[in-house]
């Protein structure tokens, strides 16, 4: 006799996958709303995109300010060149696309047309690191390495909706080009529990702890905070230092925290091990002669799999569960 | 030809001659340079800088100015020659060309040179930046024009076609693009490296008001610039300028390999003499 087994629920490898964990508070389109709010006070702000307004939350700006919105079509080199031109004429373009297309297709245009002239262009890029299961075409595992290497570029990897809200006016106040990773859609909101305030170029201790110091940026800070709570049950005390500005790096805070003896230092990032936060911090520590036990939680130097995002975060060790286990193993 | 046009033409011929002469003198300083291109584009630059463009030579950042974006940064020697002729760069600075700490580096860079509106050199970027500048000028209600010069070789770059399409989409009637068709790029004749003809049909199909002229015929260039500025339709404007590498110095014009001309030491004087002779002057 045949028994009917229920079909397992399919996990999606959709391009836009949620990064929120179950039950997490979220906020809709924080970037779009923050930009609209700021644009009311800053008439020089314009929005530009390459056929991805709806997928970078820029459509919210476009609806309120259609005359300040420039749809450049699916042409990222043009997008960056034209942003440079507008900035030359006094506008402050907020440019959006996916991180892969900005950093891989239009690198030279950001380098030559924007960064070399130190233009006031803010490049906000969705799907940073591993935040889509759509495969390597859309996974920006190396965006921070590329953008860190560009002279004059400020590089930001925000954690949540609150940080994005605060980041938008802060980058507008900063003269010069900025690359910021963008979380779009329903974005988790966690940092308000930590009385947090984003300051460009500043790292912030979110919680103290005697055994492990996790230094993290972006969504990995959310994960680090969850790991810290989990490990508390095992009497492992985890401190979390959030570093949203990848460049320029707040080395004094990092050296101070990493230099406190006895703690394992773990850098956690949603980026390949090559050229991101981990290597930036490792180099800063060595230069200063600070040599704690040092570990990296990061994506491998590989073309990543397609699949459901939770599966991939487990597979590559950046989910809360795997990260907590990894840290437990390291501290024995 | 009526008297005023005749006078304008005579004056422009003088400007074009001096631009070529400036370029040769700079080339002599370094013993090398993109002289072929400087000589081929001198007539276009004479018309742009000494006739068409609204400029204040002494104030290169003047807000009301027409912008000139040199996409092909290796033509910098030609643009310096024109900026010297227009009075933005002092004549004596010519001797610093390509030297350490000079404001006149061998490839055009905006932060170095007064009057240089963009850093060229990575080819195929100028038109995209021009699109943004045109949009920016429209935002400000400015009636200034944006001119951009690029070479036929740059048509190999995909970004140029992104720019061509978008300029028409945005109805940029404040954009005047000039393509220098000298049919020479680094590896040989442009049309053999990547076939780009028929250019007029392509540009028209892309929605541009397009003129094709002999870029070394001053009258034709003058008329094309005037027509581009005065064209009534809400379209970007294209001037395809067919030019001759080395134009004005017959023995350089005759060289087969002239993308980057090697000029022997004794030849600079000969080139200046040939240029002067062709223009009915003494060098």
UniProtKB/TrEMBL annotation, chain B:
Cofactor needs: thiamine diphosphate
Signal peptide: none
Family matches, as InterPro entries: THDP-binding (IPR029061), Transketolase_N (IPR005474)
Keywords of the record: Thiamine pyrophosphate
Top-level taxon of the source organism: Bacteria
A Pfam family: Transketolase_N
CDD domains in the record: TPP_TK
Domain Transketolase N-terminal: 28-269
NAD in keyword set: no
Coiled-coil intervals, chain numbering: none
Zinc found in the keyword field: no
PANTHER family registered for this protein in UniProt: TRANSKETOLASE N-TERMINAL SECTION-RELATED
Similarity remark: Belongs to the transketolase family.
UniProt name for this protein: Transketolase
Organism: Marinobacterium rhizophilum
């Amino acid at each position: 006799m045949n028994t009917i087994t229920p079909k397992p629920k399919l996990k999606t490898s959709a391009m836009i996958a949620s990064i929120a964990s179950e039950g997490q508070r979220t906020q809709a389109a924080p970037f779009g709303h923050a930009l609209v709010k700021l644009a009311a006070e800053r008439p020089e702000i314009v929005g530009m995109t390459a056929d991805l307004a709806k997928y970078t939350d820029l459509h919210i700006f476009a609806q309120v300010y259609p005359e300040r919105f420039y749809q450049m079509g699916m042409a990222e080199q043009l997008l960056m060149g034209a942003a440079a031109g507008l900035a030359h004429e006094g506008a402050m373009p907020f440019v959006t696309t996916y991180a892969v297309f900005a950093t891989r297709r239009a690198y030279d245009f950001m380098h030559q047309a924007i960064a070399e002239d130190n233009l006031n262009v803010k490049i906000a890029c969705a799907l940073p690191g591993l935040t889509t299961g759509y495969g390597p075409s859309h996974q920006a595992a190396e965006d921070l390495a590329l953008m860190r290497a560009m002279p004059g570029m400020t590089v930001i990897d925000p954690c949540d909706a609150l940080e994005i809200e605060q980041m938008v006016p802060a980058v507008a106040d900063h003269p010069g080009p900025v690359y910021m990773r963008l979380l779009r859609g329903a974005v988790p909101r966690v940092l308000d529990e930590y009385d947090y305030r984003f300051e460009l170029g500043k790292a912030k201790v979110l919680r103290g702890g005697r055994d492990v110091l996790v230094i993290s940026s972006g969504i990995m800070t959310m994960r680090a905070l969850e790991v810290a709570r989990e490990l508390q049950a095992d009497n492992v005390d985890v401190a979390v230092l959030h570093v949203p500005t990848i460049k320029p790096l707040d080395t004094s805070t990092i050296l101070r925290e990493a230099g406190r003896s006895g703690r394992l230092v773990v850098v956690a990032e949603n980026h390949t091990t090559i050229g991101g936060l981990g290597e930036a911090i490792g180099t800063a520590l060595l230069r200063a002669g600070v040599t704690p036990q040092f570990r990296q939680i990061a994506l491998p130097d590989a073309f990543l799999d397609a699949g459901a995002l939770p599966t991939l975060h487990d597979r590559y060790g950046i989910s809360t569960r795997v990260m907590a286990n990894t840290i437990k193993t390291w501290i024995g | 030809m009526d008297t005023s046009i005749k006078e304008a033409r005579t004056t422009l011929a003088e400007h074009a001659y001096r631009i070529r002469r400036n370029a040769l003198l700079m080339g002599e300083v370094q013993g090398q340079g993109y002289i072929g291109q400087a000589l081929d584009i001198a007539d276009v630059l004479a018309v742009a800088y000494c006739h068409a463009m609204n400029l204040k030579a002494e104030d290169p950042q003047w807000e009301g100015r027409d912008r000139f974006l040199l996409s092909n940064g290796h033509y910098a020697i030609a643009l310096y020659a024109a900026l010297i002729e227009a009075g933005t760069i002092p004549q004596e600075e010519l001797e610093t060309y390509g030297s350490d700490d000079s404001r006149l580096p061998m490839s055009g860079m905006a932060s170095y040179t007064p009057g240089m509106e963009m850093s060229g050199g990575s080819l195929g970027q100028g038109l995209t930046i021009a699109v943004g500048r045109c949009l920016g000028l429209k935002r400000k209600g400015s009636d200034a024009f944006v001119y951009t010069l690029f070479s036929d070789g740059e048509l190999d770059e995909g970004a140029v076609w992104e720019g061509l399409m978008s300029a028409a989409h945005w109805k940029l009637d404040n954009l005047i693009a000039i393509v220098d068709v000298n049919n020479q790029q680094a590896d040989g004749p442009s049309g053999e490296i990547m076939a780009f003809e028929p250019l007029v049909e392509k540009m028209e199909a892309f929605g541009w008001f397009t003129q094709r002229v002999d870029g070394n015929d001053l009258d034709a260039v003058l008329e094309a610039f005037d027509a581009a500025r005065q064209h009534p339709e809400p379209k970007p404007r294209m001037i395809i300028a067919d030019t001759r590498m080395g134009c004005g110095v017959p023995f350089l014009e005759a060289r087969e390999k002239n993308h980057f001309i090697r000029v022997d030491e004794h030849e600079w004087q000969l080139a200046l003499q040939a240029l002067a002779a062709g223009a009915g002057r003494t060098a």
